[in-house]
Design goal:
Elements: E1 12-16, H1 22-31, E2 36-42, H2 45-55, E3 58-61, H3 67-80, E4 86-89, H4 107-122, H5 124-128, E5 133-138, H6 162-184, E6 189-195, H7 208-214, H8 226-239, E7 248-251, E8 254-255, H9 266-280
Parallel strand pairs: 1-2, 1-4, 2-3, 4-5, 5-6, 6-7
Antiparallel strand pairs: 7-8
């Protein structure tokens, strides 16, 4: 493994989660270059190996359904590099809300929101050290069917339908983006969220109904390729810590995409941040 601390300070340090396949793998291959210290993260070591072979990236495995693995991942990344210029939180999917994670949470809530929230906070010092960093969160137009209830983030009281739970977690991605913009701008950290489009990939593989659909030719109806889906992620990663995109939600390449009114509720954004911090045990 190449330790970026021994390399030139002119290299960009980029971390991409959910990079073992789909738009994450496409983005990794597009951003890889001799001038980039690239770190990729995924659940499958075998799939990551193929991306590593193409990019020369450093690969780490982590299952976001276990928060201890996210904590270990943050330690590994922190040992690898002192600075991060771009953190692309792309890992996630649509999961059966009737299941519970190892930590006892509804899986869409934990995997799509709590885990990247935890990782980003644990890497805050590495982002600050870059003197200009971008946190890019992969969200979704599905945020429009979501609803954030601070008193029931885990759907213990409400009935958890798959798309509602997924949409709520994607709404949280946008709200987390705004929380970073509100709290960390003085640290030189910019954050944006992006809906890449309806990508034909392994999305929904852990949801029984959606998984069946995405394993048939029907996945190509009304969807776009991972190559097209990755385009806005690649473009925004290239912009880096551009203050013009701070707190902005993109619908593919278009700024200020369709979003729930809750996404602009500052009180709710603050409450979600505090509640999430309490759940993952950070200050």
């Amino acid at each position: 493994m190449t330790d970026s601390r021994s390399t030139s300070n002119t290299r960009r340090r980029i971390v991409i989660t959910g990079a073992s396949d789909g738009i994450g793998a496409v983005t990794a291959r597009a951003l890889a270059s001799p001038d980039v210290d690239l770190v990729i993260v995924g659940r499958s070591a075998a799939k990551l190996a193929a991306v590593t072979a193409d990019t020369g990236a450093t690969a780490f495995t982590a299952d976001y359904a276990a928060l201890d693995e996210v904590r270990a991942l943050a330690e590994q990344i922190g040992e690898h590099t002192r600075t991060i210029d771009v953190l692309l939180n792309n890992a996630g999917g649509l999961f059966d809300p009737r299941q519970r994670t190892a930590d006892g949470h509804e899986p869409n809530f934990q995997i799509n929101h709590l885990a990247p929230f935890l990782l980003t906070n644990l890497l805050h010092d590495r982002l600050t050290a870059a003197a200009g960093a971008l946190v890019l969160n992969t969200a979704s137009i599905g945020n429009l069917v979501g609803h954030v209830d601070i008193s029931d983030l885990d759907f213990r009281r409400r009935r958890a339908f798959g798309w509602r739970a997924y949409g709520s977690s994607k709404l949280m991605n946008i709200m987390f983006t705004r929380g970073i913009a509100q709290r960390w701008s003085a640290d030189g950290i910019v954050s944006a969220a992006v809906h890449p489009g309806p990508v034909a990939s392994s999305f929904g593989r852990d949801s029984r109904v959606v998984g069946l659909l995405y394993r048939t030719p029907l996945r190509h109806v009304g969807t776009i390729t991972p190559e097209r889906g990755a385009e806005p992620l690649i473009e925004l990663a290239g912009r880096g810590a551009d203050a013009e995109i701070d707190g902005v939600y993109f619908h593919r390449h278009r700024a200020r995409g369709p979003e729930s009114p809750q996404a602009h509720n500052r009180r709710l954004i603050d409450e979600l941040w505090s509640a999430s911090a309490d759940l993952v045990g950070i200050g």
